[in-house]
Amino acid sequence: MLKIGTVETMTVLRKIDTGYVLEKQAEQSLLHHNETEKELEEGQEVTVFLYNDKKGNIAATTTLPTVRMDTYGWAEVVNVSPRIGGAFVNIGIAKEMLVSKDDLPLFESVWPKPGDKLFVTLGLDQKGRLLAIPASEGAMYREIELAPEDLLNKQITGRVYHTSKEGSAIITEEYYRGFIHHTERKREPRLGEEVTGRVIEVKYDGTLNVSLRPLKQHGMTLDADIIIEHLEANDGVIPFHDKSDPDDIRGTFEISKAAFKRALGKLMKEGKIEQRDGKTYLK
């Protein structure tokens, strides 16, 4: 039985107006003219990738994608539609594959955007249609390479393949796995987004802990700028001080209490702010 999402060697049965009818073990599929770059002859064997066309019929293409059933590869996001129920990715053939919303994060704010890339394989939905399915942690662990110890404090770039409240997992071009704890990011990156960060730990198992936050001396200036912006936007006063609740600080400024206190100290030393009555004022 022909299986969609796989590569098969089939025989050209005959040529028709729209393309070629292919056959294997008495089963047939259609290879459209625009799915092959050369003329084929009856009786010729041809290697094709099988998929469903818009009508649900088995169609063939001589373009052989790296993403197949039980085989993972990178696919670029080309369209995102909560109404339709997911994101469409390009696996290298004319037909775009749907990533179901069931396989995307709960919050649409961290769904991928066009141009992002997902590490996916192919599977079938309940109606037997092809879907692109993002790699799970278990599947990704079979792909990763051990990171060298000399990456400590080095800059790395990777794509987010898993995101949660706890943190974001990324994979680099070298297939090193990195984890970004939620305290080491100012915002939660999207699934499939490319991010660049600093390695803050090379773990015993060859995986990495990564920070998207700048070094303290640089981060202090950025955090101070954020506080000044909040003050200017609120008539020069904010209901925060160096003893404010850490969760309130993170919810408003997206920085830790320690970073907030460092930035306040910098601004007070520079004479730009003052604190009184549990509030901070712009001088």
UniProtKB/TrEMBL annotation:
It holds the Pfam family CvfB_1st. One of its GO terms (molecular function) is nucleic acid binding. Residues 153-213 form the S1 motif domain. It comes from the Bacteria. InterPro entries: CvfB_fam (IPR014464), CvfB_S1_2nd (IPR048588), CvfB_S1_3rd (IPR048587), CvfB_S1_st (IPR039566), CvfB_WH (IPR040764), NA-bd_OB-fold (IPR012340), S1_domain (IPR003029), WH-like_DNA-bd_sf (IPR036388). Belongs to the CvfB family. This is S1 motif domain-containing protein. The lineage of its organism: Bacteria, Bacillati, Bacillota, Bacilli, Bacillales.
